[in-house]
Amino acid sequence: MFGLLNPFLLWLAPLLAGPLIIHFLGRAEPKVRDFPSLLPVRGQLARAMQRHRLKNWLQLLLRTLVLLCLLLAAAGLVWRSPSRWTPPEAAALLVNNGAYGAIPVVREAQFRLRRGLDSLAPGRVAASPMIAEAPPGRAVARFGRYPEAVSRLLRQSESTGPSAEAHVFLPVFDTRDLDGLAEILRPWLEKHPRGRVALLDYAGEYRTPEFLSPFSGLDADFSREGQVTLRATLGPRARESAGDNAPLWVPENGASRETRAHDGRAEIVLPLPESGDLSGAFVWNGPDARAYAESLFAVSYRIPPPATLCVLGPRSGWLARATLGESGRRLQVRTLLSASDLSPGAGGADCDLLYLSDPENPDASMLARAAAVLRKGGKVIVGTGRHTDAALLNRNLLIPLGVGRLTALESHGSLAARAQAGALAKLGVQAGGWGRVGAVRARLGFAPAPGTAALLTAKHEGRDVPLLVHRRTGAAGGELLLWTTDIGDPEWSDIALGPWAALMHQAFLGGGANPGWAGAPELRALDSDSTGFFPWDETSGEAPRIRGPRGIHAEAAHLWHPEPGGGRVGPFDHTGLYRLEPPEDPARPGQRFAVHLASARLRPDPRGDQAWEAFQEALGETASRTARVSDPDAWRSLYGGFNLRSGLLVLAALLLFAEGLVSLRLSPFRN
Amino acid sequence: MPLQAALTPAYLSGILGLKLKARAVLEGALAGSHRSPFHGYSSEFAQYKGYVPGDDTRHLDWKAYGRRDQLVIRQYRDETNTALHLALDSSASMGHGNKLEYACVLAASLALLAERQRDTVSLAYGAGALESWLPPEGGPRATREVIRRLESLRAEGRTDLEALFTQEAARIARQSFVFLFTDLWQDPEAIGAGLRRIRQKSRAATVVQLRTREEEEFVEDGSFRLRDLETGELMEINAAQARPAYLEARQDHARRLAAECARLDLRLVALRTDWPCDVALRKLLAAG
Fold this sequence. Notes:
heterodimer; A: 671 residues; 7-stranded mixed beta sheet; 4-stranded mixed beta sheet; B: 288 residues; alpha/beta; Rossmann fold; 6-stranded mixed beta sheet; 12 helices; elongated
């Protein structure tokens, strides 16, 4: 049984036609020369020319064979004995686009697997069809989109037998791929009753793929005042084997309540809290002792009165509006041109939130106003930069509030924002793997006081230097966010945070995707699937209904962060959160109910640890086999076969020698 | 420049008509010779006879008179004329290079020589059959006619030397000198059949085989198509590959021709058309 270690090189097969093309292109129409009579020499000439033609064709054949041998040698032609090979019980399917190769075990496995890409016997499917370090768009081009890659690799796994387990490593970055995968994996699972498919996300955690969920639908009904009715509908696969394994509703922040399915539907009615959230999950235990969960969040909150964000300077005002976007409906941005605008007489007392971005000439009175905002429970963001008067800030704001103190200016230092993920996590924002460490133009040192949290630090001269600090102050719960580095660049490129900075500000200011921020004056929901997003025109007077990817009706949904240039913005894209707003009730002005539905595709697999271990084991087994494909001894011991590369090279050399003989007319065919 | 060296076919064909060419060739050929190749035929002693009044006293043998005191007249064989038969193969293959022209120059030279010897000359030519024949006649007038015919000769038609030689042999009345100008591009056995007829009529026949340098050495290079001048047949050839086979075939052909001529006791003279004509004529007459 022959195989190729690197079949992609077969794309060079058209080169085999090279000698033929050269031969035929080189044939010009011969000139005609007169000759007295061919009669006496015709026989000998004809025989000579026949030999000549034969020699030509022989040369062509030999040259083509030389190229073929070299091509096959490069493609890694191998032979293995079918009798010596036994299909493995588990197959690891690694579909990795490289961006998630940071997981050490996956990266190592990927490296080894790539050496034996497609060299595997049918069934031992472990391939990394994507190009490492390549963006997803380019990576998928090699094998097509993820579903195509998975489909191709699963076809090779047909001989794994009914007991095979397929461990699919697939980043759930792009949920659109999941729909395609569902179409592929469902038939595969039907063919392999004990087959198991689990998705491993970029964080290295196993997830239950949504399309394998026993539930075909989840719904929330808010038609009853103060109550929410949650419904789960069993899908066909679950319904066939439902029996005693009915869905179970397990609220996470309340007493467990149980419900069972009747006619494939389970329903539970829960009281809605006046403010706060209610979350739980429908859990279905499958016949193979697997538990699937679909979680549901019900959130109720009272919308606070509109707040005023005061921003100093026209550029900062523009920046704040651009950052907050639609939230301006509830967060009024007010641009202050000078510190005097902060005076109570000028309306400064109305500022709930204050954003001082790299104040060039802050004076004591302005900082005193900022302190006043904090004391009354407001929030203040202070940015610093080259022109910041650190002493003034220390004296009038930071030291009196016990935040800490800014120290001497340090400029032109290279900073690594390695704590970015941690900082974002502290703000309830999930970090992603993009953004590149850059260099700031200037920053200030900072000595935090006790109780001040450093959200973002940079390694500088062997020590962690805070870049972004957070401090709660005052009995009213005022919060201060202080940048000790220059973020004056509207794109924040100098600290390589890109749009993160904006999101961090926004999260700080109260909006966010975290369910825990219910009640924030922010009405935005996340949806990575653009087909599920429909802008709601509030002025139309209609009550819009939004149908999400899984058929969930919603009243309104807003993109959390517009996709710049059509691209995607970090991990927010796949959280799958929705916020539903029923039509406004005139009787209860300002109050809305919101429901976040988090798809179960992001729920950890109940067997997460075991699955991860199984995946690693299968991956390791497969990798160890494939890693040895380039070792002829290993081939012989594993498959009773041979790597034919050396033989092909020798054969190519012999063919080349024979071609030389023919060219030099030393061919045995001559005469 | 010596005349012989100047008498190349190319030189002659460029500046002279056939008659002058032939005369120049003849002069060049005879310039280095001490006796005419035909001298023996005209002055060979035959017998004595008694003098009778009226006999030419120039032929009296005075030595015999001194010894025997009797007047006798010496009689010579050259008193009877010799016929020179010139036969040319005018098939299309003779049109390759300058073979036909070369043959005409040599034939005209021989005709002039015969005129000088007061012999008669006959001319015959054709390809597959005898197209034209001039009966043996002597004198300048006959020579002019021969040269005129040679000047109008064109190479065309397919070679059939057997037929040509057979028809020519039928026109040879007595022992004569026969020169057959041809390239002999035919099967040696067929040629032999025709030569046999000639040999039956003449014991002094010479087969003059004309070859161009290209035919001899196959000097072409590269790939090309050979076109048979007589049949129009095309054959694709790579010179490097075909040359050894051709030379071998040509040598085999020449060997068989030589064997055939030797068997018939005929003289075979092979001439290359890039040789000077006088050299060729001298070679032609050397053993004549």
